[in-house]
Amino acid sequence: MNEVDVSIIIPVKNGANTIRDLLESLMKLEYDRKKYEVIVVDGYSTDGTRELVLKYPVKLVMQEGDGLNAARNTGVKNSKGRIIAFTDADCIVPRDWVKNIVSCFKDDDVACIGGSVKGLSKSFTSIYVDNTGLHIMPRYKKQKTLNLWRVFSYPAGCNIAFRRDLLINIGLFNEAIKYGYDDLELIERLGLNGYKIRLEPNVIVFHQHRNSIIKLIKQTYRYGRGAGILIRKVKGARPLKIWLILYLIGFIVAITLLIVLLITGILFNNKLSLDIIKIIVLTPLTWGLIYYFVKGLKKRILKYALAYPIIDLLVILSSAIGELQQLLRGKLNNHDDDTL
């Protein structure tokens, strides 16, 4: 058994505005301080992050390589714990976070634990992220154990933990995947190799969600770019890759159909074409209104029911555009090497 039970790894770059709160929360964990270590992996910050981190009894290491997964892997290589837990510099963890993670790993069959992520603030955007049906951040109502990655049932890199030996055996994080889906590729790999992934509602972190719709759309656009990279870099017909391809195909077909109908309607004064456009656009909006109306009654967010379906569409569009843009960029630049 290793000297410490848990290694907590925090990748950060220019996180001086938020990382203090995270470190303070990690100093107050209900767990023997000698049995967990905190490792901050800095991506060469320029805002005083390192100077702030050095005020705490944690290990500070400089990132090797480029991207978030490179930072995660650097942390693993500098860790000692039999359990490796990850969170982000813009999160805060409750006192029982590590205790709950360790408890989950008492089940020897479990290789990975993913927990819920809740917003820190009560801003409009933060409440949207916590309640959208698009699963931007995971929220679990009950414990689930998965053998494979599933759509809308997956952990987030800001609240995830692994058995050290299995994480190393599986090959760590793929550093070619950037912007988004960087953590999901590894989770899918675990499942494909027969390991179990547990989704645990009692393992919670509080995250500083984007504080404006514009920033959220930029974030989901970057997620889409990550999806495009994953499609090009991951070899074979893996479930996550197939789902991302189908998502993009559906987007392209829908947009193409709308454009054809619009042109037909305008050039030939075809009322039927314009009516079909209305049906295509209004149907998902109507379903969204019904969904958020019901949810709004339960969670007292009814006043947002009209806005959320529109934001959902913007999120879907930005993600698909990012995915398509990244695929086209990769094709033009002939970046076909480096597959898994």
Main sheet summary: 9 strands, mixed
* The CATH superfamily title of the largest domain: Spore Coat Polysaccharide Biosynthesis Protein SpsA, Chain A
Number of domains: 2
What is the CATH topology assignment of the largest domain?
A: Spore Coat Polysaccharide Biosynthesis Protein SpsA, Chain A
> What overall form do the CA principal axes indicate?
globular
Low-pLDDT ranges: 334-340
DSSP strand (E) fraction? 15-25%
Mean pLDDT: 90
Question: What can you see in these coordinates?
Answer:
It is a single chain. With 340 residues, the protein is of the alpha/beta class. The chain folds into two domains: 6-211, Spore Coat Polysaccharide Biosynthesis Protein SpsA, Chain A; 228-332, no CATH class. 48% of the residues lie in helices and 16% in strands. The protein has eleven helices and nine strands. Strands 1, 2, 3, 4, 5, 6, 7, 8 and 9 form a nine-stranded mixed sheet that branches. Residues 334-340 have low confidence and may be disordered.
